[in-house]
Amino acid sequence: MAGGLHAVARRLAASAELPAPEHSDANAASTASEPENAMQPSSPTADATPGLLSATPARAGRVVDAEAGNRAARTLRLVAAVWFGVAATGQLIFVAYILGLYGLSALRGDLAAWNAVMPRAYVPGATFANTVIGVHLAFAAIVVTGGIFQLVPAVRRRWPVFHRWNGRVYLSAIFLVCTAGLIMFATREIVGDPEQRVASVINVALILVFAVQALRHARARRIDIHRRWALRLFLAASAAWVFRVALMFWIVVNQGPVGFDPKTFQGPFLIFLAFAQYLLPLGVLELYFLARDRGGARVRYAMSAGLGLATLATATGIGAATMILWWPKL
Ligand code: HEM
């Protein structure tokens, strides 16, 4: 699906008579240290500034455009970093919930406490089923935490060896979480529409494709392309968190459950959200790539405004999920 979005992005770029988008060698070189340096002002502006007074009007205009583009790029980079900071905080609260509810009760030997949220999560004597759920939850906490560390630029810069090992742990944990999740689908009675299950299976397929691509390009030292796939992987692997945050945002905004039945957990809104939990963030990411790499000042400011709104919505959803779903269970 990201491939589809990517194809749309390519068509958009082509119709605007822009150069071929990402993955060309030239582009890989120009964004070699994404995400942090990709937003740095490009050198033409700096080189041209001293000659501005003697420049022709056309050249001066280009310099002014380039400066505006660079300011817009810095704004976009800042807004993206703020979104990531807000999302990372919300993900760490989710991890605290997983460890606090499921981890602590396991350490206390009180596995029956797992049933507080998931009915029949722990069934005495059902060793295989209990183990699968335990693996799913334990490695889910590792995936969420590991994903955040992988994306923090300072961690990558200062501790490259940690980045590599954390990457290996992250990918292995993703594989275990997905495998356990699929086994749970096949063996447990799960509430919800069948379409929601289809959406989750597609989510797993995307996660695996993105993981393979991120690993393949990292091994080949195609770092720019590796980072693009790693960002797609992060968003696809964050879908379980996005689902909870978006659902709570929806409930708070509508002052109650609209578009679904809270008892059966079925309804059109939940079917929509089951797909949107990864397609929406992945679509926004492709637009971000396009605005960052190919957009002029206006496009970058428009993208910044969109991301700013997304940040407000994310923060509202995190607040609601914390108060409604997570904090009461701790
Ligand atoms: C890193 C990603 C994931 C995280 C962090 C995560 C987290 C969780 C958590 C915390 C629960 C317990 C319910 C709760 O307390 O909210 C859960 C349940 C579950 N998860 Fe995941 N999950 C992830 C990915 C997946 C995937 C990819 C699948 C599907 C293949 C999946 C399938 C399930 C199922 C079937 C349940 C049980 C629901 C029930 O029986 O009510 N999860 N997950």
UniProtKB/TrEMBL annotation:
It comes from the Bacteria. It holds the Pfam family DUF2306. Keywords: Membrane, Transmembrane, Transmembrane helix. Residues 27-46 have a biased composition (Polar residues). This is DUF2306 domain-containing protein. InterPro entries: DUF2306_membrane. The chain crosses the membrane at residues 78-102, 122-149, 169-186, 198-218, 230-253, 265-289, 301-327. Residues 19-51 are annotated as: Disordered.
